[in-house]
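Exam revision sheet. Question 4 asks you to relate a sequence to its structure. Input first:
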Amino acid sequence: MEAKGRIGIPRALMFYRYLPLWHAFFEGLGWRVMVSSGGRQKERILYFEDSCLPMKLLVTHAVQLKDEVDHLFIPRLVSVHRTYIMCPKFRGAPDIVRLATEGNVSIIDEVVDLRKGGNALLRSFVRMGEKMGASGHESKQAFREAERVFSKFHQGWLNRINRLPTGQLFEPKVPTPPPGRATSLRIAFVGHPYNLFDIDVNKDLLALAKSLEMEIVTSDLLSEKEIDREVSGLSKEIYWSSGREIVGSLFHFLSGGVDGVVFLTSFKCGIDALLQEFIKRRLKVRGGSQVPLLILSFDEHTGREGLTTRLEAFRDVVEEQKRSRSSNVKCQSSN
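Answer key, structure tokens:
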């Protein structure tokens, strides 16, 4: 069946969490989904100099797609949680892209705000479908199927992240590989999804980690209850859903269960700056962490060579501490 048209999804921001859901929904409505190929141009489009690098990359990817599609999909993400909100820049993302593309492409910018309760997410997708000529019934069917695809995708997440190249992690047509050989170091990588998985932000840090024999785990393995439990003792509430997930995940992993933790942040991200203070104060109260912690900050000037040096040094620290713990256990057993 011939596609109704082409809808473009920029390879940026929450693409790195929700692409399987979005892709399945639009394909279910009969549209061809096109994804930007990557932001590795010699000259990136750096609109709004005060923005963080991930937001700048959104504009780059959107401009790359605008002449190839009938619509761009850039949802106005207010809240993806029933209580907490997204970074305010997500609300203005469609407007930034509309300005950068000079209004030359249609933008599907439906509001997503799960604080409205009930079937708020379903209602948002039904409105998206209506804007693209689908009936309410067709949109509901496509959404239910997209939810099924999304759930199945996450069931194999640990194998995907450790067995696939970073650029293929969110490709719906790439099957999840079977489990492979376990490595000696289990390292948690924590941060906003676009910091973790956008190779134009992090210079493909995950590939480097795997080449250093690290097994990668992420916040996706933790339940909402586990996150809530970890942040329950904070003196201040964290109102950003991604920030809450990051802090809860860091507290969880720094308490054990992994050999080391890497926290990826974006320079100029106000939320990340505050989160670092939360972490430092909590660790000071706790008297430090049980495992080594590495904090990496990224901007458009970050180089891979420096990251390689820091990650290799971090691996050495993790291995030394692991050997030390093993020696202590043996000594206690002999006594």
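Marking note for examiners. The mean pLDDT is 89.
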